[in-house]
Amino acid sequence: MQRPELYGLGPDALEEGTQLIPYQEHWLEANTAAAFANMARAAEDAGLALAICSGYRSFERQLQIWNAKATGRRPLLDALSRPVNPEGLSHARLVELILLWSALPGASRHHWGTDIDLFDANAISRQALRLSSDEYLPQGPCGPLHAWLQANAGRFGFYFPYQAGLSGVSPEPWHLSYFPVASGWLADYDPKALYLILERAELALKPQVLARLHDLVDEYVFRIAPAPTAMP
């Protein structure tokens, strides 16, 4: 398989030869880490403590998240972040609900180290953070951070890939992508390779996923908000 790291299967982050480097308590793609450090310094001047709550995520970690949601060990949410009772739902509906907020293993942008989930550590602790949309509304603890990122993230090469009406994944005002690198990774992404990976994985709802994989990849991997074409 060419470029297994596209699917979270590359060398372990602790091994040599990976595109990832340690950054604070996380692993990021090297150019992403440098750009984020510059952006964090600028945010600090505005009184914001730009902090990462999720960076690189492996295939195995994403598989754990998927299986936990598919089997009721983690909560399911609808598009408005309201809890959903999984009892009585069809397998197809379960797949759709999971994909609103969580990627298929092998299909997460977090596999690339170019995408990060952010919060304002001056306004809310990591322990209290729920990564819910209301926390990033103007009156929420991360509202000023979100407004600042909307105005300034593009200067550092970052943008929001998950936006209302523009992406299959629900809007995530905490999720930024470093588009100078991530755009190239997306262009190289191969749904056929993902099929072979998932076929061998211990994946909950596997028959339902594989039967619709082409359409799921189109909707939840390739349908994202358009990335800026160049750095400003």
UniProtKB/TrEMBL annotation:
One of its GO terms (biological process) is proteolysis. Residues 26-180 form the D-alanyl-D-alanine carboxypeptidase-like core domain. It holds the Pfam family VanY. It comes from the Bacteria. GO terms for molecular function: peptidase activity. This is M15 family metallopeptidase. It comes from Shewanella salipaludis. The lineage of its organism: Bacteria, Pseudomonadati, Pseudomonadota, Gammaproteobacteria, Alteromonadales.
